[in-house]
Amino acid sequence: MSDAAPPRKDPDRPWRAEGTPDEPRRSGRLRGGRWWALFATAVVVFVLAYLGLHYLGRGNEPTISYTEFSRQVGAGNVARIYSKGDAIQGELKSPRANPEGGGDFTKFTTQRPAFAEDRLWQNLSNHGVTVTARPVVQERSFVANALISLIPIVVLVAVWVLVSRRLGGAMPGAGGLFGRRAPPRPVGLRPGTERTTFADVAGIDEVKGELDDVVDFLEHPDVYRRMGAKLPRGVLLSGPPGTGKTLLARAVAGEAGVPFFSASASEFIEMIVGVGASRVRELFAEARKVAPSIIFIDEIDTIGRARGGSSSMSGHDEREQTLNQILTEMDGFSGSEGVIVIAATNRADILDPALTRPGRFDRVVTVSPPDRGGREAILRIHTREIPLAPDVDLTQVARVTPGMTGADLANLANEAALLAVKRKQGEVTGAHLSEALEKVQLGAERTLIMPEDDRRRTAYHESGHALLGMLQPGADPVRKITIVPRGRALGVTMSTPEVERYAHSEEYLRGRIIGALGGMAAEEVVYGVVTTGAENDLEQVTNIARGMVGRWGMSERVGRLSALPSDAQQAYGLSAAPQTLDVIDAEMRRIVDECYAEACRKLRDHRGRLDALAQALLETETLEEADAYRIAGITRLAKDGEE
What we know:
It is a multi-pass membrane protein. Its cofactor is Zn(2+). By secondary structure, this protein is of the alpha/beta class. It has 4 domains: about 15-25 and about 185-365, 3-Layer(aba) Sandwich (Rossmann fold); about 60-130, Signal recognition particle alu RNA binding heterodimer, srp9/1; about 370-440, Helicase, Ruva Protein, domain 3; about 450-630, Up-down Bundle (Methane Monooxygenase Hydroxylase, Chain G, domain 1), CATH 1.20.58.760. About 45% of the residues lie in helices and about 10% in strands. The chain has helices spanning about 35-55, 65-75, 120-125, 140-165, 205-220, 220-225, 245-255, 275-290, 300-305, 320-330, 355, 370-380, 395-400, 405-420, 430-440, 450-470, 505-515, 520-525, 535-550, 570, 580-605, 605-620, 625-630, and strands at about 15-20, 80-85, 85-95, 105-110, 130, 235-240, 260-265, 295-300, 340-345, 365, 480, 490-495, 620-625. It has a 6-stranded mixed sheet with strand order 1-7-8-9-6-10, with helices on both faces. Strands 4-3-2-5 form a 4-stranded mixed sheet, with helices on one face.
């Protein structure tokens, strides 16, 4: 279900484009005229370097008068000369003082007057002067000077790029000095690469059905216009992380064959106020140029939180300006541009009402974790390129993974493939998938050597969980018991339902509390004391009891009302009157105490079964479902709603 978004092409454009027409002129373009600034600087550096090399490369040879040259020839002090036209370069046999000042010289240059009739060649021959074919004073050529002049430009560009990377990915400028992001990654969608479509999405068919009309509108806009129908300007995808919201948005664009612009809302925010709003304007302008198109904004709650509740003293901070610009751009849609905005969030309840009103994001689509059939379809998608052994039963894997999202299932398939590679096997087997599931849900195994007393206590602790799960009517069946340390736990009892549960009865919740308290109860029944191993169990018990009393009306004293919010862990003590909170606390204690007393009673009544399970765990360390029920002497009966 999860799929990486295409990488963005420009660090100043925090969105990524997929399926847009090729525009080479835009790749790597710097905003604010920075390319022109870099080009102008390079030209100035080149000219200065070339002129400096040209004049410095001519050497320090003095220019003497032709009269002095003739005098030195007559004195036999000229060793060799080179002539090009009337210009003469030469070298003396011994240094002489320059009559025009400047010290002694050996090499020189001079100019022969056009009117001179001094039989120069005859004088040179008579005094043994060598006339060479190569210049006496060597000067660099134009090409050499030009190439050497490029060295400062290369250094300049290297420093420019280094500084831009150190400052966060943009060229130095007003915004680049204040937190620009990493340099652009390589372009993602290559020519010929297949785009994501609905064939790559599984497990959320009802959501795909709600988005089918979006695809149909993008493919056949004229049909809707003739009927006077207008598509919703925005579609908000709401659901837990990993349920495939980003993948759905990409699939809509791929199915319709339209350009897809995706960005995370946090990437619009900068320290400089106004940068985010300008980026939003540019994003919508780009989408309109290639319409019909889709704009996808991930984690929109980053900038779309209800206004007035932020810690900023000013109502015009960067986050609110960016949100206002999004609202303004969506208001500017007439419905004929063919630009659809899709946003995703995990917290639709905290979004600003102006964002979710009709005319903006006027269609809210809830993306929930898949059911059993959906999980099986998702597993088949993520194992298409994984060689599976004949013993792999994806239906069974889907049955024992309730509550897992598409991202979780993709991770499960990948972990199983990694295990097969690690063990140098050519296929992924059912054992690989089972071990990968344990690793994903419980953590990796730890090589921990426990004292025998702690090991025996852990065996009784896990046997208490398992036995109460087997005895309690309506409880989830026990799948596996192990005392192999995993993650932070010294042992684990896995219990998963056979069918999806969408509503829980009071009896079922009490059964979960009894099962969670089974470990602590077993330690008290066997050893007469309890240990710190029940910490996680008590957290689970507290959350269930709090929900029963404060949210779900399962207490006569509190009544049929919701006294605590859904995020009661953070807001506990702030949402109800003190007297109500005292009653909630007393009722929670009553329910937990009753469940604990029942757990202890059942374990005392079935002490033989508890000892048998603990002894088997000490011998084998891990018990599968069938072995656990057989050792406990309990027939595995189908629970309510099981197949």
